[in-house]
Predict the structure.
Amino acid sequence: MATREGSFSVEDMKNVQINIGAVVKEADEWDQEMGPHPKPGVATLRSWDHMIANRYKIMYAPADDTCTLCTYGPCDLTGNKRGACGIDQAGACGKIVLIACLMGCCAHAAHGRHLYHWCMDKFGDMKFDMGDEILVDSPLYQTIMGTKPKNFKDFNEGLYYLEEEVVQLLAATHTGQESAFIDFESKALHAGMLDLLGMEICDMLQIVAYNMPRGAADAPIIEIGMGTLDQSKGVLIAYGHNLAAGAEAMLYAESNNLWDKVDIGGVCCTAHDLNRIGLGKGEAKVPAGIGMKPKVAGAMGWWRKMIRSGVMDCVMVDEQCVFCDVLADAEKRKIPVIATTDKIMLGLPDRTNDSIDAIVDDLVSFKMPGVAVLDPVKAGEIGIRVAIAVKPKRAEAKIQNLITEEQFKESVAKCTQCNECAFVCPPHIRISKLIADAVKGDLLPFSNYYEICVGCGKCEQSCPQGINILDLFEYANRQYIKNQKFKMRSGRGPARDTEIRAVGAPIVLGTIPGVIALVGCSNYPNGTKECYDIAKEFVDRGYIVVTSGCMAMDMSLYTDVDGKTIWEQYPGGFDGRNICNTGSCVSNANIGDAAIKVATIFAHRNHRGNFDDIADYILNKVGACGVAWGAYSQKAASIATGCNRLGIPVVVQPHSVMYRRSFIGRTDKPEDWMVIDARDGKMQQIEPAPEAMLYIAETKEEAMVEMAKLCFRPSDNSIGRGIKLTHYCDISMKYCGKLPDDWHIFVRDAKDLPLVYKEQMMKELESKHGWTIDWKAKKILTGPLRPADVSFDPTNLPRKIRTKK
Amino acid sequence: MAAEVKKGIDTTKNPIPFEMAQVPGPEQAKCYMPKVMGAIIKKAKRPLLVVGAELFDDPIMFDKIIEMGKMGIPIAATAHSVKGFVDRGYLENVYQIGLHPLTNNLRFPDWKGLDGQGQYDAVIFMGIFYKFANAMFATLKNFNRDIKRISVDRYYHINANMTFGNMAFIPDDYHAAVDEVIAAMQK
C-alpha cells in the first residue's frame, strides 16, 4: 500500500475495512503556513519551558517534607534529601505541582468532552460561527493544533489530542518515571497550556450551541445576590460549572410557562453560563433572551452562607468547585439534591432510568435526600418540578434554617475561649473575640467579619464544644444574605477583532499601561472586597481590566458613593478604562485568546501551530498581568501555569503558597536578562521586564505595586514606559509612602521619566546611582543599561532573527 | 500584665503550629527563651530582619523593630510595611522588597544581599502573615540550610530553627518577650 498525505491507494487487498477519521484539507481559507509545532507533544516545547525556568527560577515552598506516594515511604526529604526511589525534595515538589496542574486541566478537559457529546446530541453538528466581528475565532486552538475548527465535530480532534497528552503527562508522575524538577515543570507548563485549550473548547462550544454573546461590550447588566431570588416561588439552585442541566431546567420552565412559579439561581460558574444563554446574535436553537430570566445567586465561596439563608428549595449540582458536604448541609435543611453529572454523584442512587414522577415524589416527600440523574433533560425537569412542589412541603415541615436568638445565646455561652478555632481559620479571624463580644450583646464584630470569613467550616470541626460557628455568623447577618441585591455585567465572551485592532498598538507601545486580568475565586486573603479594590485601582488608571468567574461576581457586591457597582461605573469593552466580564471559569481562555490576537491581528504574527513564537511575542511585547486573588482550586494552578507558558505573568495571594511552586527572576543576574535583537541577532541585556512569572504577594497593596511593574515590557516606547512608570510609582507612593527602590532600572532615557517625578528622579539618578546628567539639555548621558530604541525587537527564539535577503 | 518580669517571659509554651495542620515532617522548630534568641541574633555575622504587614495590626511593633534596626541590623520591609517606617521617619537601613523575591534570593549562596555586602547568615521574621512566613521558612529549610531561620513572631513557626511558642493571644507577654530579645541584643 502506497501512501501520501491526503490520498491513498489499495491494491490486491480483500476484506479490508477502512475507517476514515477525518479528512484534512490543507490551507483552504487560511493564508498562514503551518508553524513548526502543531499539536506539540510533551517534549516539543521543552526548550521554551527551560528558557522560562532559567530566567524565572523555579522556587518551591514544600508543604510537606516527606513523600508518601509509594510503599518505600514515608521518606524524609528535608533539606532536599533523596527518598528511596531517588527523587529529591525539588523533584517531589515538581511532581505534586504537575499532578495539581493535571487535576485542573482534566477538570476543564472533561467538562469540554461532556459538552462536546452533549451539544452534538442535543443540537447536532453546528457550524462554528463566532460572527462577523470575530474572524480569529479560536486563537488557542489554532495556535496549538494548527487547524481551524469549522464545525462542532472538528473540536473532537482537539479533545483527542488533549486526552492523549494528559495520559502521557500523568504517566510521568509514576514512581520511577520523571525525576528532574525542571522537567516536571516543563510538563506542568504543558498541562497548563492544555488547560487553556480545554477551556477554550468548552467556551466556544457553549457560546455557539447556546447562542451566547460573542464579544458584546454592551452585554446586559443582570441581577446578582440571594436577595434577587423571589422567595414566593420555588427556588432552584444550579451549582457548579457545567450548564447542561441548569439550561434544561430553564428550557423546561420556559416551555411550560413556569417562571411565575419558579426562580432559578446559579452558584459559581454555572451562574455565569446560564445568564449568557440566548443573548447572542448567532444561530438560535434556544429561546432568545432566556438568559435574562435566571439570577446569579453568588460565588462558590458564599455557598455555606447561602444554604443557611433558607432561600433555596432544591439544589442541582453539576461539576467542579462543589463543596463535598453539599448533601449533608442540604439534607439537614430538607433541600433535595440532584446530582447531574458522573463527576459528582455524592453516594446517591443513580435514578437516571427511573420515571420522572417517581423521582419527584421521592424527593418532595423527603423519602430520599437526593438522587443522581445523569440525563440533563430529565434532571432539569425534575429540578423545576421538585423546587415548585417541595416549597409548601418545606414550609409545612417548619424547617429551621437559622438558629433562634435563644440558641444563639446558648451557643455563644458554651465558648470557653480556648481559641482552637483561631488555630485553623484561614484568614485568622479571632472567632473567640467575636463570640465574647456577642455574649455582651454586640453582634457588630460578627457582621464586620462576615465577608472575610471564607465559609470553610474548619472552625466547627475543631471546636471542642461543638459550636456551629457558621450558624452564628449566619444568625448575626441574617438580613444581609436575604437582602443581597447587586448588579453585574453578563459574560461577554471573547474580545472582538476590531477591539484588538484598536488597542494592539497602544498595548505594545505601552500607552495603554497594561491588561489586568482578575481571575478565579476571591476568597482570600482578606475577603471579597479586595478584588473590587484591585479592579477599581487599575480601571481608574486606564488599564484594560478583564475578569471572569467568581471574581466577577464578588466584585459586584460593592458600590461607590453613588451606589453603583463597578459594572455600572465603567463600560464593558476590551479597552482602557473599561472592565469586561468574559464569563465563567472556562471563559478565562478568552483572556489568553486576546493576547494571541494582539500578536496575530495587530502584529501579523503567524500563530498557526506556532505556540512558542506567539508566547515569545506576548512575553516581550504585551503588557498583561493576571491576578488570582483568592483562588482555592487546582484549576487556578493550571490556569496560571498555562498563562505562564503563554508569556503572561500572574500574581497570587499568600494562601497560594499551597500550590508550592512559583517562578521568580533574579534581578541581580544580568546574564538572566539577555535577549536576542531579532533585527541583527545581537544579544542585548534588558531590564527585568517582566521580573516574575508567578509572584506571591502578601497584601493587596503589594500586589497592586507588583502588578503595575509586571506590565513593563522591553518593547515599551518612551511614552508608554513613562506612563507605566508613572502608575508604578504612583501606586507605590499611595500604598507604601515612597517611590519603589528599583524604579531607576526601568529608565532608559530621560523621556521615560514620569513628568510628575522627573526633576526629583534626575537628581536621584545622579546622586544615588551615579548616572551623568546633562542638566542644560535635561538628558541622561550615562547610566541606563540600554538606550530606548523604538525599533528594538526582542526575542528569545533564535529562529526569529531576520536574515538579510 | 501577665508577664513575669523578673524571671522573664516563658516563650517555650504552646509549641503548636498556629495553623494546626501545618505539620511538615520530622524536623520541627524548637522554642527558645527571649534571652537566648537575643544572644543568637547578636552573634550572627550577617543578620536580616524581615518584617511584614501584620505590623500594622500592632503598630507598637514598628517602634521595637526600629530599635533593632538602630542596632545596625538591616530591615527588609516586605508587603507594604515600608509605609510604617516612612510614617515614623526611619528609613536608614530599611529596604522595600517582597517576601517572595527576598526568599528567592536568600536561597542562592551567591546573592550579595540588599546592601551588596554578601549573603546573610540569619533571618529574623516578624509580623508576617503566618501561612506565607511558614512557606518561605519551608523554602529555606529545604533549599538553603546555611541561613539560620529565626522567628520572633507571636506564632510557633514549625519550619524555623528557633521560634517562640504561640503567643498570639497574649499580646502583653509577646511585647515583653520582644523587649527581652532587644535587651539581650544590647548586652
Summary: Chain A touches chain B through 51 residues (CB under 8 Å). Residues 405-467 of chain A form one domain. The longest strand of chain A covers residues 234-239. Chain A has four domains: 45-53+61-209, 226-396, 405-467, 490-742.
